[in-house]
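INFO  loader      accepted 1 record
INFO  loader      residues=363
INFO  predictor   begin
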Amino acid sequence: MMITSRKQMSMNQVVTLKGLLLPTAVALALTACGGGGGSGSGSSTPIPPVTPPIAYAAVATSVPVLVYALADDVAIATQLNASRQGSRSGLLAQSTTLDLAAHNHTNFLVSNQLVGNDTYLTSTVDGVTGGHYENPSLPGYTGQLPQDRATKVGYTGTVSELVTFGTASGADCVAAFENTVYHLTQMLSPFMDVGIDFNAGNGSGSACAIELGVPTTSLGQLPAAGTLVTFPYAGMTGVAPTFYNQGEAPNPAPDLPVAGHAVLVSLYTTATPTLAASDIVVQTFSITPANGTAVTARLLANSGVKLMGGAITVDNTIAVPGELVLLPIVALTPNTVYNVSFAATVKGAAVSQKWSFTTGAAN
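INFO  predictor   done
INFO  writer      dumping tokens
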């Protein structure tokens, strides 16, 4: 199974993009009557167009029912939103235009037998890995890049894409993204809209695409001040103990044959929508089995993030400094409760959280 990632959307990138895609304002006019006698005249004084402010919204706790005809697509939608709700990153609303973009792309991959084409999957074109790139000379082409394909079908906003190959079902597709580093951070970023498609393939293997979008009317959704986005989330069960990091492109730990399931903390909230690496000092980030000792792990973070009493593993593929990933260097133990402890200062303010999750059977 291969998982590829279109480079994750950064908070600052969203601000810049949204600044270029402001919605059309509605111009209002106020009419006033001129004073005087019969020779007076009326005049109209226009008010300049008003552009609504664009900001981050609070996380969505409810969305319209997501409607899909195929069981695999239903499973993707259900599991994806369950993980986002548990992690407190906010529910995603279905976008039929992004559904179409996802369908077009999986159809392109499968019909051109690219799912098992290692040369294509490992190639890079204009900085984009093969699974996200479409060759205009091939049948079914709808746009070179995810943003191109979404724009073509009518989505107005910023788009990022997750793609995986060779999963047996839609549920396995989401589970594969959850058991990663870069795809996990992207999956739980402050997107608001989603389009999905699972293509079981025609003998060349399956393709699964999830299109994540933020409309031009918003910067995205973020939790309230003091709330951390975490994954695996508190009380989560059945967490895969082994991370097959060699299957993620790019590979977050190329020196390790396998690793343990990554633990994510995101520090972005409506009070701290932007952060510099120098704003973040981590005091504690550990994962410990119940009645055991802390697991040896690496803290993957942007250059400039500080870890008291230790050193981070600089990983600038994690595009924003406020997303921190703890990566165990060995697989976790199956069917075991793990306790996570996190404490840091963010712009001088203390933030902390402790929670537990339980691994499932060996994967």
